[in-house]
Amino acid sequence: MKTVLLTGGAGYVGSHCAKAFHEAGWTVVTLDNLSRGNRDLVKWGPLVEADIADREAVAAAIRHYKPQVCVHMAAYAYVGESVEKPELYYGNNSAKSLTLLETLTAEGVKKLIFSSTCASYGHPVRLPIDETHPQSPINPYGWSKFIIERMLEDFAVAHGFNSVALRYFNAAGCDADGETGECHEPETHVIPLALKAAIAGTPFHINGTDFDTRDGTAVRDYIHVSDLARAHVLAAEALSEDRLKGANVFNLGTGNGTSVAELVAAVGRAVGKPLNAIYGPRRPGDPAMLIASAEKAASVLNWTPRCSDIDHIVQTALRWEQR
């Protein structure tokens, strides 16, 4: 049986990945320091409570469980916080990832899937955004991930390290069976915020109505977290079977955008009542549209989204919220 080591596996995307790997027949080992993860979301294998920068603890876990592949998702992921405290992001995301790569290499685990982000692209110069689009992050969070991608390229050349960087667009939704979901504190994702407002009857603020889009509100590419999780399994299988060499990158998105106004309407349909929407000015730096081209993932990994219809995304998030 193949074994995967999931760093940050007690988080939102990580817990969904743990379930997907478990269902695909892998042994799942979660390594998480629980600073922002949730112990209750670790349900599909053992938990090693440790920091990725703890060389001895990570090495001990590798020697004990003997993983073939590491999936690296341990990171801070709040854009606003990264602007206010960049040292947190370069220290936790970038520097600690270097330590992890050094430990993995020393222990002979040279296959890794990295949780990257479309934030590494910055403002789009063309749409849809494919993997050859220029990378020019506009915040420390995006830069902290970009730096890790650069590390993976250099480790491939220097150490024969094989990796897959998966650039997520807007991860959304929750496990359809209700076994895991979003447990962020504070919550910053738009769908749970909109659902909380709809359920409580409180105002929901929409930032910007004058974008050059079909209804004036910003458009984003929402991808169901379970579709993201399945992509990690496919990438791990490709790495473990030596079908991918060197440093590889793939976008994970639907290729279709949903505007904020359309999202608000979907939330209203799910809850059964319209939101109390309050319209305000744009936030500085917000692009009008972010839409992925995921053709490379389709052709190389045989991955296409299966459950990322916006109504399904919202309904699964609502069921988790109501729990």
Keywords:
single chain, 323 residues, alpha/beta, Rossmann fold, UDP-galactose 4-epimerase, domain 1, 2 domains, seven-stranded parallel beta sheet, three-stranded mixed beta sheet, 10 helices, 14 strands, 40% helix, 19% strand
Outline of this structure?
The chain is of the alpha/beta class and 323 residues long. The chain has helices at residues 12-23, 55-65, 79-84, 86-106, 140-159, 190-200, 225-240, 260-271, 295-300, 310-322; strands at residues 3-7, 27-32, 47-49, 69-72, 111-117, 162-168, 170-172, 203-207, 219-220, 222-224, 247-252, 258-259, 276-280, 289-290.
- The CATH class of the largest domain is identified as Alpha Beta
Largest sheet: 7 strands, parallel
Q: What is the chain-wise order of helices and strands?
A: EHEEHEHHEHEEHEEEHEEHEEHH
Number of helices: 10
Portion in beta strands: 15-25%
- The CATH homologous superfamily name of the largest domain equals NAD(P)-binding Rossmann-like Domain
Whole-number count of domains: 2
Task: Kindly report the spatial arrangement of strands forming the biggest sheet.
Answer: 3-2-1-4-5-6-11
Query: What is the number of strand segments?
Result: 14
Shape: globular
Low-pLDDT stretches: none
Could you estimate the helical fraction of the residues in percent? 25-40%
Radius of gyration: 19 Å
Q: In CATH terms, what is the fold-level topology of the largest domain? A: Rossmann fold
Distance between the termini: 34 Å
